[in-house]
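Here is the promised in-class demo. Please do not try to memorize the tokens; focus on the logic of going from shape to residues.
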């Protein structure tokens, strides 16, 4: 995993099933406490501060079950920008997408930070027919012409995901922005069209 992640982070080498089994009882208890006393932000921040990447994954596992709200989005922006890489950012995007408002995601789509823009682009993955197409288009439009791999990959991924449910909309979007979209985005987006 260390090599796969371009040697950016240290790893214990614990695979996801083993990590989740080892932390299940602890996270269940921590989540129950959060429902009564509020989310344990210190725990999340401490996990993200650790050298070994698995700690960040444990924090993301906790956040998936924790009682978050729109008031947590600014704090989550700080988490997204802590030791950022696609693995933690993509895990956080799904969590953030559950609670963020369209206005918040529009703001993130215009940020200079690559990882905040990536979250804005992919936060609606899996929403199928409930995807807010105006928001999806806006978030992508803010990054048209980008040369950043992780942005262009996210654009293609978001469009490919939505193409399974509304291929006509995606085709129209691709036709409209064909000149501005990166080759990677076009290839990813049209994979199932």
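The designed amino acids, position by position:
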């Amino acid at each position: 995993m260390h090599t796969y992640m371009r040697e950016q982070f240290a790893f214990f080498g614990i695979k996801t099933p083993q990590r989740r089994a080892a932390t299940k009882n602890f996270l269940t208890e921590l989540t129950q406490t959060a429902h009564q006393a509020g989310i344990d932000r210190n725990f999340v921040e401490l996990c993200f501060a650790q050298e070994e990447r698995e700690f960040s994954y444990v924090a993301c596992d906790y956040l998936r079950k924790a009682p978050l709200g729109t008031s947590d989005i600014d704090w989550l922006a700080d988490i997204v920008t802590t030791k950022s890489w696609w693995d933690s950012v993509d895990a956080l995007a799904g969590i953030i997408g559950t609670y963020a408002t369209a206005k918040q995601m529009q703001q993130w789509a215009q940020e200079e930070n690559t990882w905040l823009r990536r979250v804005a682009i992919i936060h609606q993955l899996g929403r199928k027919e409930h995807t807010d197409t105006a928001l999806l288009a806006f978030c992508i439009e803010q990054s048209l012409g980008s040369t950043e791999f992780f942005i262009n990959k996210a654009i293609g991924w978001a469009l490919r995901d939505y193409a399974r449910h509304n291929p006509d909309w995606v085709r129209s979007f691709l036709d409209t922005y064909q000149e501005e979209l990166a080759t990677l985005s076009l290839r990813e987006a049209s994979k199932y069209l």
